Amino acid sequence: MEHPWTWDQDPPLRWLLVDEYTGDTGAALGVCAGIDGLFAEPEPPPEPERFTLVGCDPAGPLREALQAASAPSGDVQARAWLPAVMLDPVHSDPVPGGCQRYDVGCSCMEELFDVEVLGHRPSIAGDGLVDAELRGRLRILPEMHWPPAHPPEARGFLLHGQGNEPLGSCRSTIGVFHDRPFPVEQPVTLVGCRPEEPLLTLMRRRSARNRHLQATVHAVDAAGRAARTYKVLSAVVIGSAPSRLDAGLLDITLHGGFDEPFPDGAREIYDLWYAGRPSRRNLWAGYDRGLRHEWAGAALFHRPHQPDRPPGLTYDLDGRFVTDIEGFYCAVGEAVNGPGGYFGWNLDAFDDCLRGGWGAARPFRLVWHHAEVARDHLVPGYDRPPYDLRSWGPAVTMDDLLGMFARAGVTVQLR
């Protein structure tokens, strides 16, 4: 994506805002040298909480986990864990106002995840029922709704696990519904901004509710090419002043921000891409898992549109630094598409790339050098990527990847 602005100025204008949701969709709102709030230190993961499922009639994996939790052997204690427990309220008629029913569950549903099953005791709620003690975290999605302080109007809850497998039911809960502090909203400032007419129009409006913008952020490189990052800015314009960087530009203050800003360490990655596509392999190798994920994302956002190379070719994967699944995505991207190349940044995206359209036409051959590194690190278990608590689940193993290659008709030679 290119725009007719002059980029060779000081300070360089690094970030383009494009209206994707309101007003003139696709219109440029402005370019700026920086965005305070686009990069931030990640929030620490929430501390585990204690929950009780009162009057619980457990089924399936929950019943098995309760049995494992009460067994004396330390071995089976490891099985007393569940990736998720969905609490689906059983409403009385009429259904509470604002409740929306889905195929499974409703909008009043809550989810516990990373659940350690601690034990159970007989419940006074009924014969044969138990009070199940759990420790875990409540899924909080601010973009959807904030968890209520009081339980919904319901006769009880149906319990479902990851994949909607039945886990039984319970009459009520303790510890799930209570007041929780809202996160502190981080201020956002467009620093050194050259606004375009749509943004100037917003700034001239008197009413704050009419000064709301919702835009995607595009990273602009030194050649003026803009790459959409899929970071969404949702905010209200509350003020502006001549920029501290250049009096001919503006510093525009906003109320609101990003649901998920970049981690602060990703600045270095986008500084590198600003200068142009990386020219050496493995520049990502020194990053932790979170920043390796950001590297693969930057490779995706900056990916040039080009046809697949013909089938039958051989690609070499440098496996020395494949110590996690994010390292694999970085390495396979560079194996297929060269330094800074992209070939997936999660399992679904990798599967899409194997189908063609992302640099390599099938069938092809992949020589995986130093494969023993991945064999030692990509092992069975459960995984929670540090950049996304929502993705807790079974770990992606080397055997999983080799199976995907095989199903796609790709021959892999391990060295």
UniProtKB/TrEMBL annotation:
SUPFAM superfamilies: Barstar-related. InterPro entries: Barstar, Barstar-like_sf. Signal peptide: none annotated. It holds the Pfam family Barstar. It comes from the Bacteria. Residues 316-377 form the Barstar (barnase inhibitor) domain. Belongs to the barstar family. This is Barstar family protein. It comes from Microbispora maris.
